[in-house]
Amino acid sequence: MNINSDINNGDNRITTALLLAAGTGSRLFPLTKSSPKCLTLVNEKSILERLVTNLKKQGFKRLVIVTGYKKECIMDFLGNKSDDLSIEYIYSPLYQTTNNIYSLWMARKIINEPFVLFESDLVLNTTLLDEMIFPDKVAIAQMQPWLNGTTVSVNEMNQVTQFHKGTTDTYSDIRYKTVNIYSFSLSSWQAIVKKLNQYISEGNVNCYYETIFSEMISDKTLQLNAVSFDHKPWYEIDTIFDLAEAEKLFPVKLKKKTMLEKADA
User: Fold this and answer.
1) What is the three-state SS of 202-239?
2) CA distance 240 to 31
3) 196-201 long-range Cβ contacts below 8 angstroms, 24+ apart
4) CA of 75: how far to CAs of 9, 18, 40, 152, in Å?
5) Which of 8-12, 29-33, 96-100, 152-156 has the lowest mean pLDDT?
6) Is CB count within 10 Å lower at the N or C end of the chain?
7) Residue 4 CB: number of other CB atoms within 10 A?
8) Which residues of 205-217 are buried (b: 16+ CB within 10 A; e: fewer)?
9) Residue 97 class from Cβ within 10 Å (0-12 exposed, 13-18 middle, 19+ buried)?
């Protein structure tokens, strides 16, 4: 089955990104002792720098970052603009006692347009975003031994039919791992905000936002088409081991020698 969806019309291309970067990155300690996870270097370039490069190459114009742990490090590193990309910040003061559902909820007032949602621990080849810049998509990958967490079932039309909590070896259908990149139309986002408001008002601040997506897929108030990330490199960095594996996929680019340097060699 071809997981990639059909070619989209450029009229609905998304130019806003939301990055959730509030967490402490405790599994990467001691690298995160004095700076947030997104500033961890992957072969001389931080996760954040790589993402900003991805976004600019894809024509994004606005980046909103939900910060928490060591927020000043991110703000000092990026400032308010990077070329044509404007950068805004939301501080989540409860970052130590809440999960990513709360970080997503924090963006409900500042974002009122279609956007792409990113987590702050991903490194990826820029071209993987070619289809994600259109609304109502979810990035997925075939299961690998190193992957864990939320999986989804997908039908023959590339639509996500169900979210599954955790991974297991005992299931009958083909399951795919979520890559934690989603795109949403404005109408989908407005429906998500209603569900977020309900959860937060009930004190459910420690679950993952996939809980909401799962419910909405089940009751058909949200539809997501799957985009395969299997054809180009990407990696989710949670641990020191993950960092080492990511550095294998994203090696340092050697600078080409000039003619003068070659003559001196």
Assistant:
1) CCCCCCCCHHHHHHHHHCCCCCCEEEECCCCCEEECCC
2) 9
3) 196/101, 196/104, 196/105, 196/108, 197/105, 197/108, 199/101, 199/105, 200/101, 200/102, 200/105
4) 35, 15, 15, 35
5) 8-12
6) C
7) 16
8) eeebbbbbbbebb
9) exposed
**What's the confidence (pLDDT) of residue 174?**
75
| Residue pLDDT, tens place only, 219-251 | 999 999 999 999 899 999 999 999 999 999 999
Q: How many CA atoms lie within 13 A of 60 on its CB side?
A: 32
Does 147 have pLDDT greater than 70? no
Residue closest to 146 by CA, chosen among 243, 41, 227, 37: 243
Locus of tokens 């600078």: 255
Q: Cα–Cα distance between 239 and 259 in angstroms, integer?
A: 42
Return the domain boundaries, the chain: 11-264
- Which architecture does CATH list for 11-264? Alpha-Beta Complex (3.90)
How high is the pLDDT of residue 76?
Answer: 96
Cβ-Cβ contacts under 8 Å for 187 (sequence gap 6 or more):
none
For residues 238 and 246, is the Cβ–Cβ distance under 8 A? no
pTM over 0.85: yes
From the number of C-beta atoms within 10 Å of its C-beta (0-12, 13-18, 19+), residue 5 rates as middle
State the greatest distance between any 2 C-alpha atoms of the chain, in Å, as a whole number.
70
